[in-house]
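Input/output pair, single chain:
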Amino acid sequence: MGWRTVVVNKNCKLSYKNNYLIIRSEELKMIHLSEINMIIIENGMVSITSYLINELVNNKIKLIICDEKHNPSCETMAYYGSYNTSKKILNQTKWKEKIKDEVWMKLIKYKIHNQAMLLKKLDIDGFNKLLEYENQVELGDKTNREGHAAKVYFNLLYGNDFKRGTDDNTNISLDYGYSILLSIFNKEIVSKGYITQLGINHKSEFNQFNLSCDLMEIFRPLIDEIVYNNREFVFDKEYKYKLINVCNRIIEIDGKQQYLANAIPIFINKVFDYLEENYENTKIINYEF
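Output:
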């Protein structure tokens, strides 16, 4: 599995030759595909060959294209991520509601726990309130402890005047970071033969990535931490690189130190095993900061 995130922000041509990404501009650069986890194109003047796109898909390398504001706007999605995709999708449509509620309860418990641990790490008072919410999460989070915890969490982290969904620097930064996480999850879910549209808790008919939105929840605090530590800075190119570099963040998962890009597939495998009713021998795992 590749580990490099390649950001292309200059006028150039991207092509493929002998398992290498070829970048032609003022100078010629070559990167072996085995090293690459993700390519982000930030410049509208970049041209790319269809041959390269096809090879990126075959090698399960995510390609993200940004709009004129340098925000992610689209990405490549393979039609078939696994040899038995049809079977995986059929199983996905038959996941039992009780098991999905169990998974969602675990995910929300982990998410709130990680939010609390981030507040504790940053020495912000009030994290014990979130631990109380964690212990109150019920099957399927019927009482919406997630929402109550989120309000307390974001106010403690970014101030009482902060609100999600506005067009301020903090929200723009969070949305950009979350979109990077979402792309990683889209890639891994499709590569395992499932589809992103059918979620566990997210069920919007207008959301193509319901399942990705479900599974990425516990990893959001990694983005929140970056934004908190850079809250005094303008959201510029360097800021974006810090968010993109979350892929190289080292966390502990399943007792081992892993890059985030490697930890996410480990986590996803556990969740899918549980959903496929292998839950007697499977434990959905969290990570440690």
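The mean pLDDT is 93. DSSP finds ten helices and eleven strands in the chain.
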